[in-house]
Protein backbone atom coordinates (compact mmCIF):
# COMPACT_ATOMS: atom_id res chain seq x y z
CA UNK A 1 0.00 0.00 0.00
CA UNK A 2 1.40 3.42 -0.95
CA UNK A 3 1.18 6.06 1.76
CA UNK A 4 1.75 9.79 1.35
CA UNK A 5 1.40 12.76 3.62
CA UNK A 6 1.15 16.51 3.90
CA UNK A 7 2.99 17.90 6.90
CA UNK A 8 2.35 21.62 7.45
CA UNK A 9 3.92 23.64 10.25
CA UNK A 10 1.27 25.81 11.91
CA UNK A 11 3.40 28.96 11.91
CA UNK A 12 0.92 30.97 9.87
CA UNK A 13 -2.00 30.75 7.50
CA UNK A 14 -1.85 28.28 4.63
CA UNK A 15 -0.63 30.13 1.53
CA UNK A 16 -0.86 29.35 -2.15
CA UNK A 17 2.57 27.63 -2.12
CA UNK A 18 1.46 25.27 0.68
CA UNK A 19 -1.85 24.68 -1.08
CA UNK A 20 0.02 23.78 -4.27
CA UNK A 21 2.11 21.18 -2.43
CA UNK A 22 -0.90 19.82 -0.52
CA UNK A 23 -2.93 19.34 -3.72
CA UNK A 24 0.01 17.58 -5.44
CA UNK A 25 0.66 15.27 -2.46
CA UNK A 26 -3.07 14.45 -2.26
CA UNK A 27 -3.29 13.79 -6.01
CA UNK A 28 -0.21 11.59 -5.98
CA UNK A 29 -1.88 9.27 -3.45
CA UNK A 30 -5.44 9.45 -4.74
CA UNK A 31 -4.26 8.66 -8.27
CA UNK A 32 -2.75 5.36 -7.11
CA UNK A 33 -5.38 4.49 -4.50
CA UNK A 34 -2.94 5.10 -1.64
CA UNK A 35 -3.53 6.45 1.86
CA UNK A 36 -3.10 10.11 2.61
CA UNK A 37 -1.97 11.28 6.04
CA UNK A 38 -2.11 14.76 7.55
CA UNK A 39 0.56 15.47 10.15
CA UNK A 40 0.95 18.75 12.00
CA UNK A 41 4.61 19.67 12.44
CA UNK A 42 4.52 21.77 15.58
CA UNK A 43 7.78 20.52 17.06
CA UNK A 44 9.13 24.05 17.48
CA UNK A 45 6.36 25.21 19.76
CA UNK A 46 7.77 28.73 20.10
CA UNK A 47 7.13 29.32 16.38
CA UNK A 48 3.77 27.55 16.12
CA UNK A 49 0.33 28.83 17.10
CA UNK A 50 -2.35 26.34 18.04
CA UNK A 51 -5.17 28.29 16.37
CA UNK A 52 -3.48 27.74 13.00
CA UNK A 53 -3.87 23.97 13.39
CA UNK A 54 -7.67 24.08 13.13
CA UNK A 55 -7.45 26.79 10.49
CA UNK A 56 -5.05 24.87 8.25
CA UNK A 57 -7.30 21.79 8.41
CA UNK A 58 -10.36 23.85 7.60
CA UNK A 59 -8.63 25.52 4.64
CA UNK A 60 -7.49 22.15 3.26
CA UNK A 61 -11.02 20.74 3.52
CA UNK A 62 -12.47 23.86 1.93
CA UNK A 63 -10.11 23.33 -1.02
CA UNK A 64 -11.61 19.84 -1.43
CA UNK A 65 -8.91 17.69 0.18
CA UNK A 66 -9.43 14.91 2.70
CA UNK A 67 -7.18 12.54 4.63
CA UNK A 68 -7.45 8.98 5.88
CA UNK A 69 -5.44 9.63 9.02
CA UNK A 70 -4.80 12.86 10.87
CA UNK A 71 -5.16 14.77 14.14
CA UNK A 72 -8.93 15.16 13.79
CA UNK A 73 -9.80 11.76 12.28
CA UNK A 74 -7.30 9.59 14.19
CA UNK A 75 -5.72 6.46 12.74
CA UNK A 76 -3.46 3.57 13.64
CA UNK A 77 -0.20 5.55 13.44
CA UNK A 78 -1.01 8.50 15.71
CA UNK A 79 -0.66 10.86 17.37
CA UNK A 80 -0.53 13.03 14.26
CA UNK A 81 0.78 16.15 15.92
CA UNK A 82 4.51 16.35 16.61
CA UNK A 83 4.10 18.05 19.99
CA UNK A 84 2.47 14.80 21.18
CA UNK A 85 5.25 12.55 19.85
CA UNK A 86 8.22 13.58 22.00
CA UNK A 87 8.77 10.05 23.49
CA UNK A 88 9.26 8.73 19.94
CA UNK A 89 11.98 11.30 19.21
CA UNK A 90 13.60 10.60 22.57
CA UNK A 91 13.73 6.87 21.76
CA UNK A 92 15.27 7.49 18.33
CA UNK A 93 17.82 9.86 19.83
CA UNK A 94 18.73 7.19 22.37
CA UNK A 95 19.15 4.60 19.60
CA UNK A 96 21.46 6.94 17.68
CA UNK A 97 23.41 7.81 20.79
CA UNK A 98 24.00 4.20 21.76
CA UNK A 99 25.17 3.44 18.22
CA UNK A 100 27.72 6.29 18.45
CA UNK A 101 26.24 8.64 15.86
CA UNK A 102 25.87 11.69 18.09
CA UNK A 103 28.15 14.14 19.81
CA UNK A 104 27.56 17.23 21.93
CA UNK A 105 28.30 20.57 20.29
CA UNK A 106 29.14 23.56 22.47
CA UNK A 107 29.65 26.12 19.71
CA UNK A 108 27.89 29.43 20.19
CA UNK A 109 26.03 31.13 17.40
CA UNK A 110 28.93 33.56 16.92
CA UNK A 111 31.46 30.72 16.72
CA UNK A 112 29.30 28.86 14.24
CA UNK A 113 29.38 31.83 11.90
CA UNK A 114 33.12 32.20 12.40
CA UNK A 115 34.03 28.56 11.86
CA UNK A 116 31.58 27.84 9.10
CA UNK A 117 33.30 26.90 5.91
CA UNK A 118 32.06 27.88 2.49
CA UNK A 119 28.66 26.55 1.50
CA UNK A 120 28.93 23.54 -0.72
CA UNK A 121 26.98 22.08 -3.64
CA UNK A 122 23.54 20.81 -2.79
CA UNK A 123 23.82 22.37 0.65
CA UNK A 124 24.69 25.81 -0.72
CA UNK A 125 21.79 27.45 1.10
CA UNK A 126 23.56 27.31 4.44
CA UNK A 127 27.09 27.39 5.86
CA UNK A 128 28.69 24.05 6.56
CA UNK A 129 29.52 23.12 10.15
CA UNK A 130 33.26 22.49 10.42
CA UNK A 131 32.97 19.53 12.77
CA UNK A 132 34.87 21.44 15.44
CA UNK A 133 33.23 19.68 18.41
CA UNK A 134 33.33 16.20 16.84
CA UNK A 135 36.80 15.46 18.12
CA UNK A 136 36.67 16.82 21.67
CA UNK A 137 37.91 14.41 24.30
CA UNK A 138 35.59 13.13 27.04
CA UNK A 139 37.42 15.38 29.53
CA UNK A 140 36.90 18.45 27.34
CA UNK A 141 33.23 17.57 26.93
CA UNK A 142 32.79 17.18 30.66
CA UNK A 143 34.45 20.54 31.34
CA UNK A 144 32.38 22.37 28.74
CA UNK A 145 29.16 20.78 29.90
CA UNK A 146 29.68 22.54 33.26
CA UNK A 147 29.35 25.88 31.49
CA UNK A 148 26.79 25.24 28.81
CA UNK A 149 24.09 22.85 27.71
CA UNK A 150 25.17 21.47 24.34
CA UNK A 151 23.18 20.76 21.23
CA UNK A 152 23.49 17.25 19.78
CA UNK A 153 24.88 16.73 16.30
CA UNK A 154 24.63 13.74 14.04
CA UNK A 155 27.90 12.60 12.40
CA UNK A 156 27.08 12.89 8.73
CA UNK A 157 28.56 9.84 7.02
CA UNK A 158 31.35 10.37 4.52
CA UNK A 159 29.68 8.03 2.07
CA UNK A 160 27.62 8.87 -0.98
CA UNK A 161 23.86 8.41 -0.76
CA UNK A 162 21.47 8.24 -3.68
CA UNK A 163 18.44 10.53 -3.54
CA UNK A 164 15.74 9.02 -5.73
CA UNK A 165 13.35 11.78 -6.68
CA UNK A 166 10.38 10.92 -8.88
CA UNK A 167 10.48 14.33 -10.50
CA UNK A 168 14.12 15.36 -10.44
CA UNK A 169 15.63 11.90 -11.00
CA UNK A 170 18.63 10.43 -9.27
CA UNK A 171 21.16 12.58 -7.42
CA UNK A 172 24.27 11.24 -5.74
CA UNK A 173 25.53 13.25 -2.83
CA UNK A 174 27.87 12.92 0.11
CA UNK A 175 25.96 13.94 3.27
CA UNK A 176 29.21 15.09 4.87
CA UNK A 177 29.36 17.90 2.27
CA UNK A 178 26.56 19.51 4.26
CA UNK A 179 28.40 18.96 7.55
CA UNK A 180 27.24 17.33 10.77
CA UNK A 181 23.76 18.54 11.60
CA UNK A 182 21.81 19.19 14.77
CA UNK A 183 19.26 16.62 15.93
CA UNK A 184 18.50 18.28 19.26
CA UNK A 185 19.00 21.94 19.95
CA UNK A 186 20.64 23.22 23.12
CA UNK A 187 17.20 24.28 24.39
CA UNK A 188 16.06 20.64 24.13
CA UNK A 189 13.92 21.02 20.99
CA UNK A 190 14.29 18.12 18.54
CA UNK A 191 15.26 19.18 15.04
CA UNK A 192 13.03 19.03 12.01
CA UNK A 193 15.41 16.48 10.42
CA UNK A 194 15.04 14.01 13.26
CA UNK A 195 11.31 14.47 13.83
CA UNK A 196 10.37 14.17 10.17
CA UNK A 197 12.33 10.94 9.72
CA UNK A 198 11.01 9.36 12.92
CA UNK A 199 7.45 10.29 11.95
CA UNK A 200 7.59 9.25 8.31
CA UNK A 201 9.12 5.92 9.36
CA UNK A 202 6.57 5.33 12.16
CA UNK A 203 3.68 6.34 9.91
CA UNK A 204 4.98 3.97 7.19
CA UNK A 205 5.10 6.72 4.60
CA UNK A 206 6.29 5.35 1.26
CA UNK A 207 6.11 8.60 -0.75
CA UNK A 208 7.27 11.97 0.51
CA UNK A 209 6.07 14.78 -1.75
CA UNK A 210 6.98 18.30 -0.59
CA UNK A 211 8.38 21.64 -1.73
CA UNK A 212 11.69 21.85 -3.57
CA UNK A 213 13.11 23.99 -0.76
CA UNK A 214 13.46 20.75 1.22
CA UNK A 215 15.45 18.90 -1.43
CA UNK A 216 18.73 19.67 0.35
CA UNK A 217 17.37 17.93 3.47
CA UNK A 218 16.85 14.62 1.68
CA UNK A 219 20.48 13.35 1.92
CA UNK A 220 20.52 14.10 5.66
CA UNK A 221 17.24 12.35 6.13
CA UNK A 222 18.41 9.31 4.17
CA UNK A 223 21.48 9.08 6.45
CA UNK A 224 19.17 9.17 9.47
CA UNK A 225 16.99 6.40 8.01
CA UNK A 226 20.11 4.31 7.47
CA UNK A 227 21.43 4.96 10.98
CA UNK A 228 18.05 4.01 12.45
CA UNK A 229 17.88 0.87 10.32
CA UNK A 230 14.79 2.03 8.42
CA UNK A 231 14.09 2.09 4.72
CA UNK A 232 13.86 5.61 3.23
CA UNK A 233 10.75 6.59 1.25
CA UNK A 234 10.90 7.81 -2.34
CA UNK A 235 10.92 11.58 -2.67
CA UNK A 236 9.18 14.01 -4.99
CA UNK A 237 10.18 17.64 -4.63
CA UNK A 238 7.68 19.84 -6.40
CA UNK A 239 8.51 23.35 -7.63
CA UNK A 240 8.02 26.40 -5.46
CA UNK A 241 5.43 28.98 -6.50
CA UNK A 242 6.91 32.41 -7.21
CA UNK A 243 5.27 35.73 -8.07
CA UNK A 244 5.50 37.61 -11.37
CA UNK A 245 8.89 39.03 -10.27
CA UNK A 246 10.29 35.62 -9.36
CA UNK A 247 9.95 36.11 -5.60
CA UNK A 248 8.74 33.25 -3.47
CA UNK A 249 5.19 33.70 -2.24
CA UNK A 250 5.13 33.45 1.50
CA UNK A 251 2.91 33.72 4.51
CA UNK A 252 4.13 37.30 4.86
CA UNK A 253 2.00 38.40 1.92
CA UNK A 254 -1.44 38.00 3.46
CA UNK A 255 -3.27 38.24 0.14
CA UNK A 256 -1.58 35.01 -1.01
CA UNK A 257 -3.10 33.00 1.84
CA UNK A 258 -6.03 30.70 1.17
CA UNK A 259 -7.98 32.44 3.92
CA UNK A 260 -7.54 35.91 2.40
CA UNK A 261 -8.55 34.69 -1.06
CA UNK A 262 -11.61 33.03 0.40
CA UNK A 263 -12.52 36.20 2.29
CA UNK A 264 -12.27 38.24 -0.89
CA UNK A 265 -14.73 35.92 -2.61
CA UNK A 266 -12.39 33.65 -4.59
CA UNK A 267 -13.92 30.16 -4.97
CA UNK A 268 -11.97 27.03 -3.97
CA UNK A 269 -12.36 25.70 -7.54
CA UNK A 270 -10.70 28.86 -8.85
CA UNK A 271 -7.65 28.31 -6.61
CA UNK A 272 -7.41 24.63 -7.55
CA UNK A 273 -7.81 25.61 -11.22
CA UNK A 274 -4.81 27.94 -10.97
CA UNK A 275 -2.82 25.27 -9.10
CA UNK A 276 -3.56 22.72 -11.81
CA UNK A 277 -2.52 25.20 -14.51
CA UNK A 278 0.68 26.16 -12.66
CA UNK A 279 1.56 22.50 -12.17
CA UNK A 280 1.19 21.79 -15.87
CA UNK A 281 -1.86 19.52 -15.45
CA UNK A 282 -4.16 21.86 -17.45
CA UNK A 283 -3.39 24.08 -20.44
CA UNK A 284 -5.60 26.92 -19.29
CA UNK A 285 -7.10 28.17 -16.04
CA UNK A 286 -10.44 26.47 -15.54
CA UNK A 287 -12.22 26.15 -12.20
CA UNK A 288 -11.95 22.59 -10.99
CA UNK A 289 -11.96 20.45 -7.86
CA UNK A 290 -9.08 18.22 -6.70
CA UNK A 291 -11.16 15.08 -7.33
CA UNK A 292 -11.68 16.07 -10.97
CA UNK A 293 -7.90 16.12 -11.36
CA UNK A 294 -7.24 12.63 -10.01
CA UNK A 295 -7.44 10.91 -13.38
CA UNK A 296 -5.37 13.56 -15.10
CA UNK A 297 -2.59 13.54 -12.53
CA UNK A 298 0.71 12.65 -14.10
CA UNK A 299 3.98 13.40 -12.34
CA UNK A 300 5.88 13.52 -15.61
CA UNK A 301 3.85 16.57 -16.68
CA UNK A 302 4.85 18.56 -13.64
CA UNK A 303 7.34 21.39 -14.05
CA UNK A 304 10.73 21.01 -12.46
CA UNK A 305 11.56 24.72 -12.17
CA UNK A 306 9.79 27.21 -9.90
CA UNK A 307 6.33 27.96 -11.23
CA UNK A 308 5.53 31.58 -11.84
CA UNK A 309 2.20 33.20 -11.11
CA UNK A 310 1.70 35.63 -13.93
CA UNK A 311 -0.46 38.77 -13.64
CA UNK A 312 -3.50 36.82 -14.81
CA UNK A 313 -3.20 34.17 -12.09
CA UNK A 314 -2.59 36.85 -9.48
CA UNK A 315 -5.66 38.78 -10.61
CA UNK A 316 -7.87 35.70 -10.62
CA UNK A 317 -6.84 34.85 -7.09
CA UNK A 318 -6.92 38.49 -5.95
CA UNK A 319 -3.31 38.35 -4.83
CA UNK A 320 -1.75 41.78 -4.51
CA UNK A 321 1.82 42.78 -4.14
CA UNK A 322 2.39 44.13 -0.69
CA UNK A 323 5.76 45.77 -1.15
N1 LIG B 1 6.75 20.96 8.02
C1 LIG B 1 7.49 21.30 6.84
C2 LIG B 1 6.98 22.61 6.27
O1 LIG B 1 5.87 23.02 6.56
C3 LIG B 1 7.39 20.24 5.77
C4 LIG B 1 8.20 19.06 6.10
C5 LIG B 1 8.26 17.99 5.03
O2 LIG B 1 7.36 17.91 4.20
O3 LIG B 1 9.22 17.21 5.08
O4 LIG B 1 7.71 23.24 5.52
Account of the 3D structure:
The chain has about 325 residues and is of the alpha/beta class. The chain has 2 domains: about 5-85 and about 240-315, 3-Layer(aba) Sandwich (Rossmann fold); about 85-200 and about 225-235, Glutamyl-tRNA Synthetase, Domain 3 (Glutamyl-tRNA Synthetase, domain 3, Alpha-Beta Complex). The protein is built from 11 helices and 11 strands. It has helices at about 15-30, 50-65, 85-100, 110-115, 140-145, 190-200, 220-225, 260-265, 270-280, 290-295, 310-315, and strands at about 5, 35-40, 100-105, 150-155, 160-165, 170-175, 180-185, 205-210, 235-240, 240, 305-310. The strands form 5 sheets. The protein has a 3-stranded antiparallel sheet with strand order 3-4-7. A two-stranded parallel sheet has the order 1-2. Strands 5-6 form a two-stranded antiparallel sheet. Helix 1 (about 15-30) packs across helix 9 (about 270-280), helix 3 crosses helix 6 (about 190-200) and helix 6 (about 190-200) packs across helix 7 (about 220-225). The chain is elongated. The N and C termini lie far apart (about 45 Å). About 40% of the residues are buried. The structure holds glutamic acid. The site of glutamic acid has 7 residues, from loops.
Amino acid sequence: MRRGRFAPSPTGELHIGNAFTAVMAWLQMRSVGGDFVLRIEDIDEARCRSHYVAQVMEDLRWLGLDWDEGPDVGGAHGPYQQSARLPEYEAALHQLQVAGYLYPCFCSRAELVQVASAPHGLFADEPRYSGRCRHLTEAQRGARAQQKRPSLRFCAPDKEVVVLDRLIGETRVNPLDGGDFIVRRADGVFSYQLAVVVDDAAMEITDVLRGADLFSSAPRQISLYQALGRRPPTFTHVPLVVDAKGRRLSKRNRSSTVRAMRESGVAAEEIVGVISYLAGLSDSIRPTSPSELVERFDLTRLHKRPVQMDELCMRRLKIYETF
